[in-house]
What does this fold into?
Amino acid sequence: CTKNFELYNTDNTGIPNGMLEADFYNLSYLKTATMAIYNFSGGGDPNSFQLQQNLNADCFSGYMASATPFNGGRNNLSYFMMTGWNGETFKAGYLSVMGQLAKLRQSNIPKDFPAVWAVAQIVQVTAMSRVTDVYGPIPYSKAGTSKTSIEYDSQQDVYARFFKELDTANTTLRDFIASGKTLPFKFGDFDLVYNANFTKWLQFSNSLRLRLAMHVIKADPALAKAEAEKALDPAKGGVITSNDGNMTVRIPGAGYTNPLIFIAKNWNDIQINASLQCYLTGYKDPRLSKYMSKSTDAAIPTQYIGIRLGSVTSANAKSDYVGYSAINYTGDDAFTLNTPVQLMTAAEVYFLRAEAALNNFANAGGTVQTLYEQGINTSLDQWHAADANYINNSVNTPDKYIDPKNALNNIDTPTHITVKWVETATPAEKQERISTQKWLAMFPEGQEAWTEFRRTGYPKLFPVANNNSGGTISSTLQVRRLPFPQNEYNTNNAAVTKAIGLLSKPEDNGGTPLWWDKR
Amino acid sequence: KSFSQTVTLKGKRLALYDVFNNISKQTGYEFVYDEKLLQGSGPVNMNVSNAPLTDVLDKCLKGKPLEYAIVNKIIVISPKPAPETVLQTAPIKGTVTGADGKPLFNISIQVKGTTRGAITNEQGGFSIQAGPKDVLVFSSIGYETKEITVGSNTSLSVVLSASNTQLTGVMVTALGIKRSEKAITYAMQQISGGELTKAKDPNLINTLNGKVAGLSISPSASGVGGSAKVVLRGSKSGIGSNQALYVIDGVPMNNSLTNQPTSVYGGSNAYDGGDPISNMNPEDIESISVLKGASAAALYGSQGANGVIMITTKSGKSGKVQINFSSGVNLAQAAYKPEFQNNYGPANAASPQSWGAKLNSPAANNMSSFFQTGQTYTNSISLSAGTEQLQTYFSFANTAATGIEPGNKLGRNNINFKETGHFLNNKLTVEADVNYVTQKIDNTPLSGFYLNPLTGLYLFPRGQDIRPFKDQFAIPDPSRNFLPVQNWTYLEDIQQNPWWITNRNPNSLNRNRLLLNANVKYEINSWLSVQARGSIDRINDVYEQKMYAGTYKVLSPANGVYNYNNATTTQQYGDLLLNFNVPINKDFRLTGLVGGALRDLKTSGVKFNSAQDGLKIANVFVIQNFNTLNPLNSGTLPENHGQYQSLFGSANLSFKEMAYLDFTARNDWASNLSYTPSNNYFYPSVGLNLILSQMMEMPKAISFLKVRGSYAEVGSSPDPYKSHPADNIFGVGSASANVQTPFTDLRPEKTKSLEFGMEWRFFDNRLTADVTYYKTNSHNQTLSIEAPWASGNQTFYFNAGNIQNKGIEAVFRYDVFRGGKFQWNTGINYSVNDNRIVELAETNPEFVLSGASGANFVSKFKVGGSFGDIYGTVLQRDEQGRIKIDDKGSPIKQGGDFVYLGNANPKWQLGWNNNLSYGDFTLSFLIDGKFGGQVMSVTQSVMDQYGVSKATGDARDAGGVAVNGVGPDQKAVTSVDPQKWYSTIGGREAVSGEYMYSATVVRLRELSLGYTVPVKNSWMKALRFSLTGRNLIYFYKKAPYDPEMTMSTANGLSGVDIFMPPATRNYGLTLNATF
It folds into this structure.
């Protein structure tokens, strides 16, 4: 008698699809996806985030560095690209974002509540734009279509698709807002970003479009202009203009933590990068104490001191650098394990608009200078560090770096750019000023900061102290991308081999520039 | 003795042969005789109805030169002593006991050179006519044959020692069916219970090591009470179990593995609480048969594909009450320790590595302050008593052990009660057996990088004194109101204070196990019987791991970790068998069975792990103190419910006891296959054997020759939920889509096995040889493959592949001296296995079993390779084979894909077992060797990186590492700076190719010296002392650890040492007394 066999062979700890329909609980897929953009959906253990972003983009952006001599100091941070580390961005993007949203698409939600589905599309573009900006070509149009082989799209095609998806989402959201309808359930329970405020989602989607448009400004200026102007078109709903519109993902409570703070505080595995420290201390930036704490190493005087990337070698123990400055989790306005994850701020949007104005795009909504200064002040406000004089400082320049423990790491400042806007400066200097301040404002979100560093060349960051890339990555140009994951070679070999041909040169290493990377 | 069995027989001039067959048919009793005896014995006239069996036998043998003896439903016909001999001899009386002092029943005694014989009764007593010059030959199944010259004795006290090698006579086969050894068409080897108790190990299965050809046992490195990896004839399954199936009294045991490490980190969820076989009391075991191939196991189906280890437990015996008491103490010491350099200390006090200046005085040994002498005390008592109708067996055993790492303890109590009853004129036999086991294991040593005291101990800078850290492993932290936190200068994820780990990262496993068996058998008539069996095996495991505040940050949040896991696994088994035994005619006999079985396996339980979410209050280890209940770490355990229903049958046709043909067939229905096109599978087997020595005239030297061959297929079903994984899984306060795809076209794995064998006995059984060739091919492997992530899935499964094992097994035995006061028999078992991955899926010609993350090696599965292949990194070399040295003077690692480095499995194994006795003294020893194969030591590579190993000291003493290298300028380099060399090749992500070692190991595995005290009083029957040793001498060992040890008894991590505790050398003293 085998009539109970199917019952026996059903995992009692799982949730059948049908059970999730009650109370719209299938919107959990959206929640999981939102938490995975900057991955903390793994609960208390931030191991995924550490590899997804922290030990690559967060460090390559000049924000952070680690005191831990992973693999005897030969690891990503000294340009020895770790095969085992470089797949997580890819993995989280597909398994925890796209895969989840694909399940949501199969439910009745997209049909019954298109505005909710529009939010899901925006989440997907947010997440996957970060993935393509790490690797370049990625599987996108064909994702989820096969178990054994999935073709890649060129980065150009992926971006084109992002813009299309944002078009659909934009229309849907505007229609929904205009209709004045409400949802028959509490969408706020599943919306960790804007608590069911669709107007804010609309503004974020436009801001995201603006960000992506600016990414491609060198690769396809016409597209950048068209998309940026569309994003800035007031008829489309506007962009984020104040800090209450910042795109942050709330930590939904016990069991989840801000993974960056967890790694910094509980594991002491991440410290502040020398580049960030030298800009902040050099500018006497009011955000300095908000961003970082002073050193705690008994062997050196108490000071704001970062670690230069690549300083930690096989000769070092973790204890050598673990007492250098960390992200501020102890002082005033300290980051906590519950600090929401910040993915886009109003300040960034002002700087994007300043750059749009610099390129004479329509609808930037101000002069380059006013937008630049609004960006700075919006950021200072955000960090409770308002300082009316800061924007007028034409004296302070970034510090040179002096490693109190190893003089071999000392290095002169890479730039003498100041804060105060100079209308008569060269376009390059203007770009540097905008990018430098944007970089200071976006902390601690290293993924976008690394993208902007690669796209514009600014801010000027210290080169790596020890380059173990074996010649594949230039110390001057720094890391341009991550190699494709080993898992793709193991499981999707034909497709990834073809994708290498879609790169700017057929070399799958950290030195190959992406499509939009044409500086 | 009277038997109520009755016989009706009428006829004139009946051939004795037919009479016997007829009686056999009516009574179910079997006759054993030499056919030559019946020749010329003449016909008989019979006219009896419902006459007692003995009367009938008396009647039909009346006036014939024959007599009979009835033993266990077997009627032995032997020639009557010739009258003239009787006149020349006097009756000799005596008793026969085993080495343990227990009387031996059913021992055959023969006057050498004559046909006179006798059999001992249940008290071991015998009486036989023999003269002073006669030599008596005592022999029986499971005992060494002994010859004694009568001399002037009229009373003899004979002690037989258990034989270590293959038994002769009746063998216990699948489903607990007893068959004559002659009839068996496949390779099996039987081990007596005495062999298991000779030199005990806390896990009894380890005492089989080296004694059975084709059986490979790798004890786990998890201290006292740990499990063992037991593989017969090579590994067959890529992701399924490769462990042999254990069957106790005909009922398959649930030997599901406990948690095993799956990565180089090991860690708190990788504890090994011992496999269910390790819970058994070795004293309760009567014998063990090892059924090596799929043929033997075909009737067990799914579970039996990897071979079967059949265990028969002791039952009560009718007769006088017998009490046996056994007590033993066993001391264990680390059999080897890593080799350290003693001349160089750290560069400064805070440096964790020993690359500093030369020390003023040589460094002290820090090992002795950590390792201790392990002690095992076993005490057991058993009682056997009964009448003809009811027999009782009761035993109790207590095992208390400590391991060589401080804090590692085992406490175990076994209670066993078995009652056997015979009713309705012995037609109905009822048996019930209750076993209860409690076991507590504390501080299972965890191998790997995390939570392992050995990393801190081994890497501790040379020349520093470790004792202050032992005396004060915790120091008060003023910032935490003087909470005692860890005292260790070199905190890293891979190292903590060793005593902090043993005292403040403790783990414990509490097991309660209840095993109930019931068995009812009814003889419907002389040729048909029906049997029903039921069994419940319920194992409850409570595992706790605590980490106190002050544990290294990456492992534990500030207030500590509490991990609690409570799981109950219940197996219910029932079967119904119909046995038949039909003599078709004079020459042919058909025996066999049909039956059905049901096995149901289910786990229930909960787990709670505060993990990285932490505790509210430091060091309060209760679930209420959790900061949060995170469903990713805590919750209901999956039931993994599997039910297997089976119908099976076997038929065995024999011709004149010289040719046997076997068929078996079985069909299984498995719940794990639901949601697939077919939830059942069928597999047959066929076997043939010929007793050539009975079919044709053989030279006198050959006393027995048998050839056998068999072919079998065995299907095995996959794990639960593979075809139907959960649609969605729980996250914290949320649900997410499962990333594992359902395997809807799943099919069972199928192993096809072919084997041929020959058994020879020479010189009156003095020399025996048993040689088997086998070849097995396992198809339809269930392979778990990482999916391209863009599919939205992480893993998917498919069936593919063909893994082949072929090899030869040979067992030889020789009685060097037999008879007389000095006896010596010696046995050799040899096996060679060749494992080959013949094919995998076309799309995935290789996949990784374990490794990679955090270390520079993987265990890879690749077409053309074999199970256990290790891949890793090597140094770059030029075309002349010279190592490339870079401009800074360091060797250069070869990047890119891992390369093949070696295979961990031995190519062949040899065991040499010896039993000697002289009067009341016995001596036995076992030397075994495993030859071929390569293993890796990550322990060594990390010690090299830290500059603590002897190799790094020697290199510094010599002024550099001598190499055949070449610099960037193409100039030869002959010496490399030791620190540059070892910090490149050593470490966690080492040049693993530099850390491969020969796995060949030859050892003195067992040595036992026994003395039987001649006691002559009424209350004590026997008293025996023995001194034993295990793993005493490594005659050959090149690896820096014992290559036989394994970090995991699952499929991964084999052949890799990552800070495993050393193997132990054991010394024991045992006392056995019988009352």
In short: Confidence is low (pLDDT under 50) at residues 83-88, 164-168 of chain B.
